[in-house]
Amino acid sequence: MMDVNLLFKIAAIGILVAVLHQVLCRAGREEQAMMTTLAGVVIVLTLVIKEISSLFNAVRTIFNL
Question: 29 vs 23, 34, 35, 36, 43, CA distance in Å?
Answer without folding.
Answer: 9, 9, 10, 11, 21
